[in-house]
Structure formats: C-alpha cells, structure tokens
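Handout for the seminar on molecular recognition.
Each group receives one record of this type.
Step one: identify the two inputs.
Step two: read the structure output and locate the region that could contact zinc ion.
Step three: write two sentences on what you found, then compare them with the reference statements printed after the record.
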Amino acid sequence: METKDLYKVLGVSRGASQDEIRRSYRKLARENHPDANPDDPGAENRFKEVQHAYEVLSNPEKKREYDEGPRPFFNPQGGTQGQYRGSTGGFTDVSDLFESFGSFGDVFGKAPRTAATPARGRDIRVSVNLKFKDALAGVTTRIGVPAEEGCGQCRGSGAAPGTAPKTCPECGGRGTKSLDQGFFALSEPCSRCGGNGRIIEKPCDRCGGAGRVRRNRQITVKIPAGAKDGMRIRVPGRGHAGEKDGPVGDLYVVTRVEEHPVFKRHGDDFVVGVPVSFVEAALGAEIQVPRPGGGSVRLRLPAGTQDGKQFKVRGAGAPKPRTEESGNLIVRVSLVVPKKLKKREREILEALAEERDEDVRAGLFREVREVGA
Ligand SMILES: [Zn+2]
Ligand SMILES: [Zn+2]
C-alpha cells in the first residue's frame, strides 16, 4: 500500500505554490525518466511516483482531498492509493515533458488524450499510376499531396497576428471539468473551450483559428526498379502535421502499375506465353523470346516439347526492389496447329501419318482409350 508523502516525493514543502510543484515535477520527471535511465530499473518506479504525486498535487480538488487526509469509509485498509490513483477521469499533464523528451509516446501510450497532449499527425496515403516500363526500370516522379501543415501566419496558434490564445478561465486550461460525485471524480470536456484548454478571441484570418492549413505539396518520390502493383512506399515525415507540436505523420505512396498485354507478373517472375508450331516442338528449335525490359533472350526448345511446358530464364524477370537480384522469366509454350494446309503440306502430313500408322483417311476416327488403361 502506498503511504509515501506526496510532498516528499516531489521534494517540496506542504505550503509549496503550484509553480514550485510544477518546477520540481518537471525536474524530477526528467531525471527519472526511464529513457534517460536505461540501466536503472528503479527509475521507472520513481518516475511513476513523481507523476502520480504531481497528478494529485497539481489538481486543486485532489490536493485538498489529500491534504484533508484519507476517507476511512471508502478505504478501510487505511491506504490512500485507491482514493487518488485513477479517480481523476484520467487527466495527466504531460505537455511540459514533451518539450524535453521526444519519445514519450511509449510511456504515456495508455494515457487518455487531453487538450494538452501532443498528437502525431495522421499518415497520408496516395496512389501513383505507373507505366509498365517505369515500374520495371524504376522512376523518380513528383506527386501532388494535399497535406495539412501548421499555419505560417499564426505559427499554428490559430490566433490573429499580435494576439495569443488565452487560457480558458472555465477549466483553467485543462480542457476538462471535474464533476465531484463523491468517491468517483468524473470529468467531462470543458464546454467553454471545447476541450482545447485555450480560447482564441480573434482567430487568424488565414487558417480561421484552426492553426492548420491544407496545402497541395509537390513531393518527389523514388519508385524502385521492379515496383509491383500495390506496393507501399513510405516517405517519413511527409504526412499531416501533428497537433500541439506532435510529430509529423508519414506519407505512403501506393503503386498502381499498368498491366502489360504479354508479360504477366507473378511475384518477381514474369510469365510469357510463346506460340510454337508443332513442327518446332517435335523437332526442337531455337526461339527468340522478348524480355519484359526490352530486347530478347534465345531459348533452345528440346525435340519433343509438349504443349504447356514451361522454361525458366534465370534473372530475366523483374528486379527485386532494393536488391541486386532479379526474378525469372517463365516461358510457357503453347502449341499452335495450322488452321489451313496447303496442298503440299497436306501431302507431307498424310505421308507422316502413314509412316506412323495413323490412318487419317479412314474417316479421321480413332478409338480413345481410357487414360492410364
Ligand atoms: Zn493561422
Ligand atoms: Zn475550458
């Protein structure tokens, strides 16, 4: 059970002002922050104690409750923990710490969002249409990205030049109002400031008081060679601006690659169908096969190649993005039977049939036996 004196935890006297409490809290929170003390397992506990003490002592209502002592009726075990911890509706003032620590999100990841909490800007997702050859060879392209950024005129404050947002008098800048319900102290967003904690009396005319403007940015994106359809390219820090000095979001560029009439992509391989006459297939032949990136590759078909047979040309497929390797080109043979025969061709084929005891003249009839019989 927690029995520590919260004033001692913060190293201040009972009569300390809110300013002193705040200063001491900032100092101790910085010193004991787990990120700053990776080798000290006790730091996190001290950090939590400091944070908890500040939560209580910075809140006038909770401070009064604490100063008046525990209420035995609600906590017969005599501890004070349950009375203060977690009974606040979740307000945690961490805005000052964010100024000193970039990586606070992890520690406070579970803390509820309040007016004072910086928030990371949202990510943006845009798609880019690519020609087949550009996706294959890689290309640097410029795309328009509508992104929110901090207003340059009011520097994000939302207040007209020469004026500044004022702390909301209704909630004292917290953005929330506590409703005392006895043991449970509930809180709700402040209606005066809409939970912002601040009031803008004269809004900036450029952003209308939002502190943010939407601008169409031209962003240069490098598409790696071999980019696939539906590939996601992350451009860090090119998303929407954060709120309350939170970090900028990321941009995700999704590729839309035009389909090729001949080359079909399978992973990093390309498949190409190649028509082969039955004579070439029967006798064997050397054929020229086009490559996806231009040019061609020679391929030797062995005698007796069957319809649908596939040959692999190593390394002639798509470059694997961000590697030195490439996929393969898969050549799929399809046998083509002549639709019409010249007289001389027919004679040759008939002679062949005779040679092979295939009696085509007897009405083109052949008994088909069950496969495998
Ligand atoms: Zn503005
Ligand atoms: Zn307010």
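Reference statements: The domain at 6-100 is CATH 1.10.287.110 (Helix Hairpins). The longest helix spans residues 42-57.
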